[in-house]
Recover the amino acids of this structure.
């Protein structure tokens, strides 16, 4: 390990951080504003493809680490005083990026590049991962077309190997050294421990948010829950923690009445994100009681040991041993069908919406396996595809309404095909 012990941590010696946080606070809804107003403002921030919070951070001299889906240990960037930003594409017209990809490539890869080529979201360091065949070339395309340092973080191909934890800790150290170069600071063990504590708190709050979805879903429709979670990918995590701490109790006090809606799990949002209006359309008929939307923000399921002698080893261990699942991680202990069934049973869902982003090979492959498992278990499911640029959901709404009625009114348990 080359990270230094001691308390003279980089993040602690950052005189500009207060100004940067103040600049972002200006863009966030004020504490105590009416709940509806606050949720609308958060949604606006999440949908804003000019990324005002990221620009505010940079204008005040801050550095930004952009990381592509699905998971990145954001504690590494945070410990170096950088703003970790989740690069997950966006609903933008593709004018420049399309010429860099073949036509069979999913949208999120293109729009992430489009945002950078058009200057809307350009990080100081871009980290990507070879999560699928399509994403394998992302680093090369970025390096050729943008004047931004690009790093590839290689997660263990075989998480079941006895060496995977040591390997991953050394990989985190390699990437951390590049982060230090870009941040212009050294990161100490105590910096990392401090960052782990901030992110543990964030994970705790996100678990509380999902508990509301599970236990009282009529108080928190899926689209509102989504923006509350997703905004964490574009603001400092301390501010996300403050926002969630203020809003969650107020959401729990909401005077919302329980309705006769189907409890469903939404599966298929691990990488490219469905449009918010699609989630809104689902919320009209269903309570989404669990999902894999932006799963990278919730990848680690419990606290990472905050006092570990080696924080990088603790983070690597958590990635392997305390984590969720996705079609792009191949862990033999986590067969995806079994994990989906657990998610459905753990949340008391009656059915599943099994979605996949268009042209997403890992997602479409899993759809087949999920369908088979759900059929065998007699759990109703609705299959659909989406693209982040979708605008019209009327067809999907009619099919979903029919699916829900068949189940609720006629008790149909056989699998029902949805939009494909
Ligand atoms: S949406 Fe699917 S195909 Fe596209 S980058 Fe993500 S995992 Fe790969």
């Amino acid at each position: 390990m080359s990270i230094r012990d001691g308390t003279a941590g980089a993040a602690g010696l950052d005189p500009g951080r207060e100004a940067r946080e103040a600049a972002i606070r200006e863009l966030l809804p004020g504490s105590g504003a009416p709940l509806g107003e606050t949720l609308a403002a958060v949604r606006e921030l999440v949908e804003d493809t000019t990324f005002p919070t990221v620009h505010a951070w940079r204008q005040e001299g801050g550095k930004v680490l952009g990381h592509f889906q699905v998971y990145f240990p954001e504690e590494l960037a945070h410990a170096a005083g950088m703003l970790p930003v989740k690069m997950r594409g966006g609903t933008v017209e593709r004018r420049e990026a399309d010429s860099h990809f073949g036509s069979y490539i999913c949208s999120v890869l293109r729009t992430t590049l489009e945002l950078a080529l058009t200057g809307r979201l350009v990080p100081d360091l871009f980290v990507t991962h070879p999560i699928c065949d399509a994403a394998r070339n992302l680093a090369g395309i970025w390096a050729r077309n943008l004047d931004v340092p690009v790093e590839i973080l290689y997660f263990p191909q075989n998480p079941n190997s006895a060496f995977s934890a040591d390997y991953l800790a050394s990989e985190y150290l390699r990437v951390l050294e590049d982060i230090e170069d870009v941040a212009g600071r050294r990161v100490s063990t105590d910096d990392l421990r401090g960052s782990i504590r901030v992110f543990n708190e964030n994970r705790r709050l996100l678990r509380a948010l999902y508990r509301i979805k599970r236990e009282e879903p009529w108080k928190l429709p899926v689209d509102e829950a989504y923006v509350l979670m997703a905004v964490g990918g574009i603001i400092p995590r301390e501010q996300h923690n403050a926002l969630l701490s203020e809003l969650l109790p107020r959401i729990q006090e909401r005077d919302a009445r329980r309705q006769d809606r189907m409890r469903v799990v939404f599966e298929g949002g691990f990488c490219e994100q469905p449009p918010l209006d699609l989630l809104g359309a689902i919320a009209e008929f269903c309570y989404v009681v669990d999902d894999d939307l932006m799963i990278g923000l919730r990848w680690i399921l419990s606290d990472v040991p905050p006092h570990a002698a080696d924080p990088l080893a603790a983070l690597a261990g958590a990635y392997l041993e305390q984590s969720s699942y996705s079609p792009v991680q191949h862990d033999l202990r986590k067969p995806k069908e079994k994990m989906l069934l657990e998610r459905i049973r753990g949340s008391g869902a009656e059915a599943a919406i099994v979605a996949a982003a268009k042209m997403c090979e890992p997602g479409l492959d899993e759809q087949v396996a999920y369908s088979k498992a759900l059929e065998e278990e007699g759990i109703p499911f609705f299959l659909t595809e989406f693209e982040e640029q979708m605008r019209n959901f009327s067809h999907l709404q009619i099919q979903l309404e029919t699916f829900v009625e068949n189940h609720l009114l006629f008790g149909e348990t056989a699998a029902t095909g949805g939009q494909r």
